[in-house]
Amino acid sequence: MDRIRSQSLASLPKRRSGAGSVLVGIGDDCAVLNIPSGYETLVTTDFSLEGIHFRREWHSADTIGHRCLTRGLSDIAAMGGEPVAAFLSLAVPAETSQRWIDQFIVGMLRLAKRFGVTLAGGDIAQSPNGVLADISVVGSVPAGKAILRSGARPSDRIFVTGELGAPIALLEEMFAAPKRKFRPASYPAHFYPQPQVEVGRYLREKGIPSAMIDISDGLSTDLARICEESGVGAVISANAVPVASLGRHEVDLRHALHGGDEYQLLFTAPLKRRVPNVIAGVPVTLIGYIDESGELAIEHENGYTTELEPKGWEHFSAGAKNKVRTTRK
């Protein structure tokens, strides 16, 4: 495992010892992790590709680094786990400045510090065409307690954290006005999305969810994945879906249902489980219920119900071909 060639890592300790989960980090051929007895290991990996998940003319290096790590942390959160360590493989064009690389690492490390995650290794290589970042995150969860997508059952209620739709609504504005500068601090849901690790931990500790997933590809698509894995159907209420506000930019139900790039949690819970309205400062909204139909449906304001077609992101779908996704997973 090559040391990441970035001055921003010079001050990091090369080894850790004692009770910490990362016993050996950057500086050896492999990291050495200590997963305590009675816990299971969670491992996730995600690509972030220039022109697909970000554009350097729109996104600063630190926001790209932040978003890259968010993807992995959100997967750990969706399992109810605790993130432990991250590993970065970064490929950049030859003309990329050291400052850009440093700022990418700064954005990643700032988020990692918040969740006690160690950047335990990685590599930097030259890319012939654009920036490519592959992030792997390792976490842990008490044995047998990982929250899967396959546990939803008929009569379970469906909940979602946070508000939905703002990231994709802003993205539409960015495509409409590609030369306009959007200040990251003014649009944190898009530029600095927050993985719901604390919420996932609380839900797992209280034994609330029967199934859970993070909304990286859109509510409609990710709910369909829970239903497929669980062998069930679902009905959600259009009026109940928490649509975000975005200043003067319009956000509507379409954005909230199909937009993705949210990194909020979508989960189901049995009727007997009490679900708080707010967890770790994040609102939690009841939006529907699970049934036996095997289909997705949405109840509209006037009382009629129609099919809910999954229209979020699918990497190899016909609609994705030759389409710049830019921000969604």
What's the story with the biggest beta sheet? 8 strands, mixed
Q: How large, in whole angstroms, is the Cα Rg?
A: 20 Å
CATH class of the largest domain, named Alpha Beta
Structural class: alpha+beta
Question: Remind me, CATH topology of the largest domain?
Answer: Phosphoribosyl-aminoimidazole Synthetase, Chain A, domain 2
The first-to-last residue Cα distance is 26 Å
CATH superfamily of the largest domain: PurM-like C-terminal domain
Q: Tell me roughly what share of residues is in helical segments.
A: 10-25%
**Silhouette:** globular
- What is the count of β-strands? 14
Q: Write down the overall mean pLDDT.
A: 87
The succession of helices and strands, N to C, reads EEEHEHEEEHHHEHEHEEEEE
Summarize the structure.
Helices cover 23% and strands 26% of the residues. The protein contains 7 helices and 14 strands.
Descriptive account of the structure:
This protein is an alpha+beta fold. It has 2 domains: 9-142, 60s Ribosomal Protein L30, Chain: A, CATH 3.30.1330; 157-315, PurM-like C-terminal domain (Phosphoribosyl-aminoimidazole Synthetase, Chain A, domain 2, Alpha-Beta Complex). 23% of the residues lie in helices and 26% in strands. It has helices at residues 61-78, 98-114, 166-176, 188-191, 197-205, 219-230, 253-258; strands at 22-24, 32-33, 39-49, 82-92, 118-126, 132-142, 157-161, 211-214, 233-237, 265-269, 278-279, 282-291, 296-299, 305-307. Strands 7, 8, 9, 10, 11, 12, 13 and 14 form an 8-stranded mixed sheet that branches. The protein has a 4-stranded mixed sheet with strand order 3-6-4-5, covered by helices on one side. A two-stranded antiparallel sheet has the order 1-2. It starts with 21 loop residues before the first strand and ends in a 22-residue tail after the last strand. 44% of the residues are buried.
